[in-house]
Amino acid sequence: MDVLIILITLLIGAAATYFAGDKLASKVATFFSLAAFGLTLYISYLQSNGVEVGFTRPWIRVPNIQLSFLADGLSLTMVLLTTALAPIIILSTFKKVQNKAKSFYGLIMLMVFAMAGTFLSGDGLLYYIFWELSLIPIYFIALIWGGGEAEARKKDVVKFFIYTFAGSLFMLVAFVYLYQKTGSFLNYHFLRLHLNGTEQFWIFFAFFIAYAIKIPIIPFHTWQANVYQKAPTAGTMLLSGIMLKMAIYSIIRWQLPIAPAPAKEYMYPLIALCIAGVIYGSILALKQQDLKKLLAYSSLAHVGLIAAGVYTLTIDGLRGAVLQMVAHGFVVVGLFYAAEIIQRRYNTTEISEMGGIRVQTPRFTSMFMILVLASVALPSTFNFVGEFEVLYSLAQTNIWFAVLGGTTIILGAFYMLRMFQQVMLGEQNTKVFADVTFGEGFVFVLIIGVLLFFGLYPKPIVNFVSPVLENIILHINTSN
Amino acid sequence: MTTLIAIAGLGIICLIAEIFNLRKAIVPVSIIGLLAILGLNITELNLVGSTYYNNMIVENNYSRIFSALFIVLTTFLVALSPEFHKNHKTKISDFVAIKLFLLAGAVAMVSFGNLAMFFLGIEILSISLYILAASEPKNVSSNEAGMKYFLMGSFASGVILFGIALIYGATGSFDVETIYNTVSGGNIPGWFFIGIVLLTIGLLFKIAAVPFHFWAPDVYEGSPALTTATMSTLAKVAAMAAFFKLMKGLNHEVPGTYVTIIIIVSALSMFVGNLMALKQSNVKRMLAFSGISHAGFMLMVFLSPPTTTGVLFYYAAAYGLAGIAAFAVVLSVCGNKGNEEIYNFNGLGKTHPLMAAVLTCSLLSMAGIPIFSGFFAKFFLFGEVLRAGQVAIVIIAVVNSIISVGYYFKLILAMYTKDSTEEKQAVPFAYSVVAVVAILLNIALGLYPDLVLGYL
């Protein structure tokens, strides 16, 4: 058994969901995403016991493109995150009546397929194809099922598409250049290349544009907040929970090992750019009056910190980044789900129109509170583990980076708690707010369970990813 | 050779069928005949090349595989005909026969061994197109399009003929191989190169590359939609294939100045085509400008002729199939509306999800989004051109790919975000079959590029 089966399950799931019809679509999608999650767990178990689960077959002779899927701790962790969040995201949409449900769930499954493929690809072109493929479903999801005024939404979504498409074309050019050098697109062939400084600079730069737009790192972030706000919540979850992790994963897997020299040379400016995003995102989050936009900017801040951790090129930075990616994926999905629940009941995302919900909904309040605390990295949550390691790696590089990066926790606590206060506390709201249903509560419990479990016991993930990351660091340090 | 004779014969059978009042049989017989010829053509692939009639016709894998592509495209166009001309049932034999003769011209254009044959091929193709462009005699814009196309086209033909005459004067032969040998022997008079330049200008006219593109938008818009489909897929691809074969056959190496000219023309075509397409509100006009930009992309093959033969074929196939699929949808949507403005596509995603999906796929293919063959076409092309060391033009092409997303998505947005104002109408069966089969072939090419790349 190899990793191909995960992708096949997801692809068949996408088709089956579409053909199951509007009524059954959500159930079929849940079934297949759970099946994919189960298979991923099993494959990860096999892999950790030393079974070879990779898959390589020739695909196109000229140019030489391989159907190569590599499965190591890093890529499997990311696939685990993807397939674990997929059923949660699908479950979170259950209560809401969807028009054209079969297309909606079919596109979600297609997107999950493409993202899992991105994490697993070991061939540069295959990776690029999956990377681009993931863009098409999210474009339609945001466009058709999004909220807000239609014209404005259209503009934002198209802007998002063109931004990311433009960025990735530069990456494609880099891949083509690398192919000219090696005659192959395979990742490990790229790593054996000895590129000179100029070549490495341009390749690093081409990759950087693609990833900086996707993550996003300022000044490439302008598409983000509007799309997050206007996309349907499931789309925002896919974007913020998984899709932007593709970019950070890609930095670790492709950019740094292929072009390590510029990463070392420009380490300080790169980290500074990421940290600037942290502060910028936090300050803007402070000023937001819209709940989803606030969460979008807070996501910008957190992800900036993850990217900063990666660019420190230390084992702590990389490991912290991976842990934080997983943690952030869960917490951001949970927070957007909470926003969605409020939006369903009050039909607004304006913070000023909320308040006084706590009295009516003790259960929802406590779950929301735990998520808020997790997102500000309270010890004993998973986010603390990741954020701590990232800050530690920043401190190793330069103490001031850690100090500035640490503001994300302080500012984060400030705007998140203030948001919580304005939304949940205060005088009892006159509008009725029904407490969470069983289904909604179940989603929260799942997320909180994961966050607390790995917060107290992160060892399984740490053991799973560390060997891969150590190899990558070794490769970066030994290459000249 | 058999392919060419069989196609011409099939065209004559069409005309005879009309005499014997077998009008209903014309389209099925033509389609079956075309598929049979396609089969015949494919079995001959990989056979040793052969020549006929004192080297007038040279058959090799290049001519065979391009003929196969032309036959496939023509089959689609013929299949679209009966529905499109349903108000002129009596004329169906003419329309089908002209398309078959057009195909014969296209096949002659890729299997010539002699400049006379090349010119005959290009004239057969062009004259068929002049007739098709003006095939709605009561429609003023169709008349205008036919007249414009005829004037411009015959002017271009004249330029080509003058070029051929100069080349004959310089080398003493029409035979491509003899010319090649004379040229590589050195010591050729200067007007040989003038002849090459005139040939180039004439062919740039035919493929509608900037600055010889100005006829294309008007002619495309004025002609009946099916003729526009023929011009922008089959005719463009055939002219490009002939152009490539001719230049590869006449010059043993590409001189530096010629490369500069090609780079400038290609970059201009891409920029003008894409920037103008952004502003269009008529779908036919938009596709015309998009075709101009694709001509610019295809011209890049001249930057590395020894290695780009397969790439040119792949690009032509991807572009042609996506174009056919897109036009099949355009025909089905705008068939009885009298115009092709973008608002006709509003709400297509709701009323006809299948048609909307096909059009989306074909536009994504033209924009170069992965898994569709359009992506691989651009990708292979950029790879070869980069290998030839031309970085600047690749960057221009990448920038243009980004620009093109803008107008392709305008149509996609109209289909999925706006609401339809009109009642739902049934899509004719023939249109949906052609659209779906063409886009499936396009995707199949994207998944298995080796399918066709192995022959060249």
From TrEMBL, chain A:
NADH:quinone oxidoreductase/Mrp antiporter transmembrane domain ranges (all copies): 122-407
Pfam families named among the record's database cross-references: Proton_antipo_M
Membrane topology reported for the UniProt record: Multi-pass membrane protein
Annotated InterPro entries: NADH_Q_OxRdtase_chainM/4 (IPR010227), NADH_UbQ_OxRdtase (IPR003918), ND/Mrp_TM (IPR001750)
Residues annotated as transmembrane: 6-21, 28-45, 65-91, 103-122, 128-148, 160-180, 200-222, 234-254, 266-287, 294-315, 321-343, 364-385, 397-417, 438-457
Keyword Electron transport carried by entry: no
UniProt keywords, alphabetically: Membrane, Transmembrane, Transmembrane helix
Protein family: Belongs to the complex I subunit 4 family.
Source superkingdom: Bacteria
Gene Ontology process terms (BP): ATP synthesis coupled electron transport; electron transport coupled proton transport
Organism encoding this protein: Flavobacterium beibuense
NCBIfam families: NDH_I_M (TIGR01972)
Localization: Endomembrane system; Membrane
GO MF annotation terms: NADH dehydrogenase (ubiquinone) activity; NADH dehydrogenase activity; ubiquinone binding
This protein's GO CC annotations: endomembrane system; membrane
Stated name of the protein: Proton-translocating NADH-quinone oxidoreductase subunit M
UniProt keyword Membrane, yes or no: yes
PANTHER family: NADH-UBIQUINONE OXIDOREDUCTASE CHAIN 4 (PTHR43507)
UniProtKB/TrEMBL annotation, chain B:
Cellular localization per UniProt: Cell membrane; Endomembrane system; Membrane
GO biological process: ATP synthesis coupled electron transport
GO molecular function, one term: quinone binding
Domain NADH:quinone oxidoreductase/Mrp antiporter transmembrane stretches: 114-404
Topology class, membrane: Multi-pass membrane protein
Claim: Transmembrane is one of the keywords in the record: yes
Highest taxon listed in the record's lineage: Bacteria
UniProt keyword annotation of Zinc present: no
Transmembrane portions of the chain: 25-42, 62-80, 92-112, 149-170, 190-212, 256-275, 287-306, 312-333, 354-376, 388-409, 429-448
Record function comment: NDH-1 shuttles electrons from NADH, via FMN and iron-sulfur (Fe-S) centers, to quinones in the respiratory chain. The immediate electron acceptor for the enzyme in this species is believed to be a menaquinone. Couples the redox reaction to proton translocation (for every two electrons transferred, four hydrogen ions are translocated across the cytoplasmic membrane), and thus conserves the redox energy in a proton gradient.
Entry-linked NCBIfam families: NDH_I_N
Subunit structure: NDH-1 is composed of 14 different subunits. Subunits NuoA, H, J, K, L, M, N constitute the membrane sector of the complex.
Protein name: NADH-quinone oxidoreductase subunit N
Source organism per UniProt: Flavobacterium beibuense
Gene: nuoN
